Hints:
Blueprint: E1 2-4, E2 10-12, H1 16-22, E3 33-36, H2 43-51, E4 57-62, H3 65-71, E5 79-83, H4 89-94, E6 101-107, H5 112-116, H6 142-148, H7 151-162, H8 167-178, H9 186-196, H10 208-218, H11 221-235, E7 236-246, H12 249-263, E8 284-290, H13 294-299, E9 307-313
Parallel strand pairs: 3-4, 3-6, 4-5, 6-7
Antiparallel strand pairs: 1-2, 7-9, 8-9
Helix pairs in contact: 1-2, 7-8, 7-10, 8-9, 11-12
Amino acid sequence: MTEVATPEFQHLTVLLDEAVDALDLAGARADGTYIDGTFGRGGHSRLILSKLGAGGRLFGFDKDLQAIATAEQITDPRFTIVHDSFATMKSALAERGVDQVDGILLDLGISSPQVDDAARGFSFRNDGPLDMRMDTTRGMSAAQWLAIETEQQLEKVIRDYGEERFAFQIAKAIVARRAIEPISSTRQLAGIVAGAVKTREKGKDPATRTFQAIRIFINQELEDLAAGLNAAYDMLAPGARMAVISFHSLEDRIVKQFFASKVKVEQPDRRLPIKAVDLPQPLMKLIAKIKPSDAEVAANPRARSAVMRVAERLPAKGAQ
């Protein structure tokens, strides 16, 4: 399914059917309350709405003003859009009288329109202002941050969030260049990185990891993910499912470890006289790990790194 974001930019929703199927909207669950934590251009949200019953509700979240503008075109009374990070879902929905939901979908990363629009500053392939903010009404742009950050912190961000082995050389080159002129465009930054990276991965631009690192840092993506996973778990009703689509190893590692912490709870010393029925029980069960099909990757190469993990909240011990 393709949603037209603007006349120039289109977005193909990754794992569209698989993600919505994972929420298990059949039967009575069709009248439940759901969250699409990353509305994007609305592919998942529209499909969820098509499967919801008359009593169902869907809340969408997004930080991007262009995504919000697209969401506001949906006139379905069952749908509400919130201009904020999904990390705020618990407080945002509490304000709307909702404290429990029947399913949550998080589609992480950035959308194709964000990448393809040079004015957003996410892409090293097209020259544009070095912004990278998903929400352009808040926080510093990438250019503003690069102008003031220490070399040591630049290196740490590029290394930790980009998994870039030439982080030291890149940070040093950035500091040297900004002493001569402001680094204000994507082409400038990509050129600086290309000059500092000594070897290149086959088929990958040398700026890929640095741009990823700066984008993640500027938008606090990993912090939002950690907070959002905890908020989502707190809101899930017993039997409700959470599906999370990740696009790089840093995201997927956080999701995998979070689900593992709910599935494998710490057990007391076996030597203690505790009945089996009184032992700590798992809080969630894993449902699936799904990757895009070969056909989807062929149609949309940006889907190739995606992985979706699905887990279900278990009833509390003793609950009927």
